[in-house]
Model the fold of this input.
Amino acid sequence: MQVLPETHPAQGNKIRGVSMADNAKKTEKKPEKKENPFVRFFKRIVKFFKDCKGEMKKIVWPTPKAVFKNTGVVLVTILVLGLFVFALDTVFMNLLSLVMDVAKG
Done:
């Protein structure tokens, strides 16, 4: 339920200093001239690339020293995990061959 402020008879059709005619003018829709769809499309593409350029300027790129350090960490991690998987594979293959030998004999 909306509560409207009480108006004094001397105010007439004015509420909070704005007349009803002013409200009607604000709500009128002006006829908008639509642009050609191709023009709108290319304007949007241009805006997209301008925005991309602006975002690229905001990026803080790592220093070459940090890149080489992080690359080393990744390579060492890959090596350690590769050796771990190799060790597990070897252990399970030996267990499987042991189980197969017991099943044959």
